[in-house]
Amino acid sequence: MLAGGASSRMGRNKALLAVGGRTLLEIAVRAVAGVAGKVTIIGPPGLYEATGVRVIGDLRAGAGPLGGIETALADSVDGWNLVVACDMPRLADGGLRRILQEAWVNADAGCVIPESGDGQAEPLCAAYHRRMLPVVRAALDAGTRKVTDALPAGLVRYIRMTDDPIFQNVNTPEEWGAVRRDLEH
């Protein structure tokens, strides 16, 4: 679970925004735990310790989501790892389960990244195999920060998930207001 971002466009911590009595972090933790069984939050330990979920800090400060992926893979002992950003208020078990099923079927892939109906890739709600750790590290060492730029095409398996709203994320107060109004009605 990636929860270490600065939330600069939002102006406050996105993980702690609440809808329906639950924070975005709680929504994400529940969805991931329902599919993966265990959750680790990658973010500031002091900020999220009260959640009762294991929290570890980024290995590289300021490396963005790619740095969070590095931290998650370096910490993991599992082959496949579900990596999910905490700013997706519509996150659901079904979509996450499908991503993991595709990962297990595509054992030679390095990661399984869903695409929305319009072909937009969502690398922050995807499955990454631990064997991607050296690839991610090398990209970070070379100064790459964009997740999709760090992933060699031959190791990525894209899956189309048309009309699945689980990938909707919130980055600005305006986006948050629209999503909150929609979810609370």
Characterization of the model:
The chain is α/β, with parallel strands linked by helices and 185 residues long. It has a single domain (14-183), classed as Spore Coat Polysaccharide Biosynthesis Protein SpsA, Chain A (Alpha-Beta Complex). Helices cover 36% and strands 16% of the residues. It has helices at 24-36, 45-48, 64-75, 93-105, 133-141, 147-150, 173-183; strands at 18-19, 22-23, 40-42, 54-56, 80-84, 111-115, 125-129, 156-160. The strands form 3 sheets. It has a 4-stranded mixed β-sheet with strand order 5-7-6-8, sandwiched between helices. Strand 1 (18-19) and strand 2 (22-23) form a beta hairpin. The model has no long low-confidence stretch (mean pLDDT 91).
SSE order and pairing:
Blueprint: E1 18-19, E2 22-23, H1 24-36, E3 40-42, H2 45-48, E4 54-56, H3 64-75, E5 80-84, H4 93-105, E6 111-115, E7 125-129, H5 133-141, H6 147-150, E8 156-160, H7 173-183
Helix pairs in contact: 1-4, 3-5
Kindly summarize this structure in a few lines.
With 185 residues, the protein is of the alpha/beta class.
Oligomer: single chain
CATH topology: Spore Coat Polysaccharide Biosynthesis Protein SpsA, Chain A
Widest sheet, order of strands: 5-7-6-8
In terms of DSSP E residues, the strand content is 15-25%
**Helix count from the secondary structure assignment:** 7
Global shape = globular
Structural class: alpha/beta
Rg result: 15 Å
User: What is the terminal separation in angstroms?
Assistant: 27 Å
Instruction: Sketch the major β-sheet.
Output: 4 strands, mixed
Mean pLDDT comes to: 91
